[in-house]
Amino acid sequence: MPDEVTTTLGRVAAGLPGGGESRPGQVEMAVAVATAMAGGRNLVVQAGTGTGKSLAYLVPAALSGEKIVVATATKALQDQLADKDLPLVAAATDNGLTFAVLKGRSNYVCRQRVSEIGGRGSQLTLAPGSADPPDADDTLTAGSEADTTDPSTIAEQVRSLVRWAEDTTVGDRAELSFEPHFRAWAMVSTTARECPGAFRCPSGRDCFAEHARARAAEADVIVVNTHLYGAHLASGGAVLPEHQIVVFDEAHEVEDVMTDSLGLEVGPGRFRALAIAARPVVDSDDEGAGKAIEAVADLADVFHRVLRPWSGRRIPQRDLMDGVDPGVPDAAAARASVTDADQDAEQDADEPQGLDLGLAPLPKSMKRTVAAPASTAKATAVRATAVGSDPAIGTLLALATGRVGRLVDQLRRAERAAGESEPPTDRSRRDRVLLAAGHLAADLARLAMLGDEEVAWVEDGSRQPSLRVSPIDVGPLLAEQLWRSVTGVLTSATVPIGLAERLGMPLAATDILDVGSPFDYRSNALLYVARSLPDRRKPEAEPAMHDELEVLINAAGGRTLALFTSWRAMRAAAEVLGERLDVPILSQSDLPKPALVEAFRADETACLFATLGFWQGVDVPGRTLSLVTIDRIPFPRPDDPVLEARRELAGPGAFGTVDLPRAGTLLAQGAGRLIRTGSDRGVVAVLDSRLAKASYRSALLARVPPMKRTLDRDEVVAFLADIAATADAGA
């Protein structure tokens, strides 16, 4: 097998532009991957920039004869694998290798939703608020809480999407020539939480998402987003075809992605969207159904008000549990104990004061006992439901559970009333609403039963706050749900220390490898630490940092990527240096990321000032970039709710096991923006004196590429001046 791998890898390299080049690290990695795949052992590989790691795992994958999923963290790498690397490997192996790209369901246009718009296309109108911004985990389009887009513009986009849906053969949103507004796309797509499946959908036979899944089921290699793989695990293995091996590229992202994917999120938008979706599927003359829908819609505003004061804060378990009867295991059980007659008999009862909409109350088994509270905590919770105020979070969850359950009951009533003669399209619409309601009810029940191994907090998103739950430690979950049945290959240019342990990989069956990088960092790059600067935590540090930046940027003749750990620091530096420097300064506030990087690449004298989103995934080779500056060691926020819980779990050693590995990985990612080809030269300047003085500096420096190190600014200025002179001479 090793000989076959190296021979095939040579053929693939020969097909690269320029005939490729010998990369010993790539060969070493490819042989190790092949051995791991054949032996069923897990492998974690650190492969520095320039190794060519994608081919080092794709060639063994193609020769393995196994079903393999490759999960990546960025769309750029997905496109590279599908459009460039996999076709090269397929041509070189000549064994009929097949591959497919699979995305989440919401990435594909839904034929059923399009057919429901149908002939309304030319008269379509969209009132403001007739669709809700995407949830915080929807990475397709960022919405705005105060969206002011003209409804006629959105309606025109919907008409364009309907026309496109008639011609497309794949239905992938990425095919579009424009970026649709999230409201427009929501009208022609569906999510996994709503889709009833091909067998219950009138358009199931023609479903683009199902066709994509079918292609994936037949392929030897499936390329997915790491978030989709997390959704696969969260669903119990229902998203992806059965496979024997998974490759996680950009493995430094896996822990965070799994933390998100194996948790849940409930925000105001889910209630609003459910109410909007429910209105067309019930009888408009049914007063009970109308009240149930309005009750759910009202929860959106109440959730927003209740969650806002908690933004960025953890929620104690007792606050989530307060208001839930521990004798009732979940919302479904509570609803099952309440008949239609019970509901009708309770129409005049009251909900918690201040939220009375004239609706039927929560089922008796879900109500809080408000008389004679036995504790101060309970008394506080009761007072929170007084007239004119909002309920406590636990009471709100109980209220929401009852209202969502009431809506489900009304939808079931409408379903029974429609009978077997109901048109398939109407049934499909109701199925989607019932599924969305069911998922929401299940999430509410889980929130109310938070375990000790989970952390709950309120995330203050760009649109609205949302209540989130994540596992504190994903290792045990992955050990049980993933590594028992699937062999893993994890690779990145910067593998965090202890990653295998934190991901629950069985250490006895896991190998760790570092194949280095083919680049000559010691000759071509300097790592400069500004030791003389004041401590970055002191007020005088920022003006001194601006002075240091000015000297370095002038020496480089522009050509600088300045990375900051906060938007505030970035904006302050851009404002100050914009007045001092004669070179253009591009700020992350100016343009979307792709356009900003392209503008930076096009002007050799330009500087790009950016925050954490640019510390990785930015590839600007050549003389356009000769200086990368980092304003401070990128330690994680001390008040991050998940990390705070992990620190508590880790105890006295938390700094070394939680904070230091994350800072080291991000520092290495930022430094890795500099040398992208064998001929690149430049300086990484860390403007935080702690990297030269603190006791933990060695642990951080060990994560940075092996550049020559210096504390001498004059040496740095001379080195940059030489690079600038060479670049100017070659212009």
Please describe what this structure looks like.
By secondary structure, the chain is α/β, with parallel strands linked by helices. It has four domains: 2-98 and 219-260 and 474-516, Rossmann fold (3-Layer(aba) Sandwich), CATH 3.40.50; 105-209, no CATH class; 279-471, no CATH class; 521-730, P-loop containing nucleotide triphosphate hydrolases (Rossmann fold). Helices cover 46% and strands 11% of the residues. It has 29 helices and 17 strands. The strands form three sheets. A seven-stranded parallel sheet has the order 3-4-2-5-9-1-10, with helices on both faces. Strands 13-14-12-15-16-11-17 form a seven-stranded parallel sheet, with helices on both faces. The protein has a three-stranded antiparallel sheet with strand order 6-8-7, sandwiched between helices. Strand 13 (585-587), helix 24 (593-602) and strand 14 form a beta-alpha-beta unit.
What attributes does this structure have?
single chain, about 725 residues, alpha/beta, Rossmann fold, 4 domains, seven-stranded parallel sheet, 29 helices, 17 strands, about 45% helix, globular
Arithmetic mean pLDDT = 85
Decide which structural class fits the backbone.
alpha/beta
Q: What portion of the residues fall into strands of 2 or more residues?
A: 5-15%
Q: Low-confidence spans: pLDDT under 50, at least 5 residues?
A: 125-146, 324-388
Summarize the structure.
By secondary structure, the chain is α/β, with parallel strands linked by helices. Residues 125-146 and 324-388 have low confidence and may be disordered.
Would you spell out the secondary-structure blueprint of this structure?
Elements: H1 2-14, H2 24-39, E1 42-47, H3 53-64, E2 68-72, H4 75-93, E3 99-101, H5 111-117, H6 151-167, H7 182-188, H8 208-218, E4 221-225, H9 226-234, E5 245-249, H10 254-261, E6 264-266, H11 268-278, H12 287-307, H13 317-321, H14 331-336, H15 340-345, H16 376-383, H17 393-418, H18 424-448, E7 454-460, E8 465-471, H19 475-481, E9 487-492, H20 499-502, E10 510-516, H21 521-524, E11 525-529, H22 541-556, E12 560-563, H23 567-580, E13 585-587, H24 593-602, E14 607-610, E15 627-630, H25 641-650, H26 654-671, E16 682-686, H27 690-693, H28 697-701, E17 708-710, H29 713-730
Parallel strand pairs: 1-9, 1-10, 2-4, 2-5, 3-4, 5-9, 11-16, 11-17, 12-14, 12-15, 13-14, 15-16
Antiparallel strand pairs: 6-8, 7-8
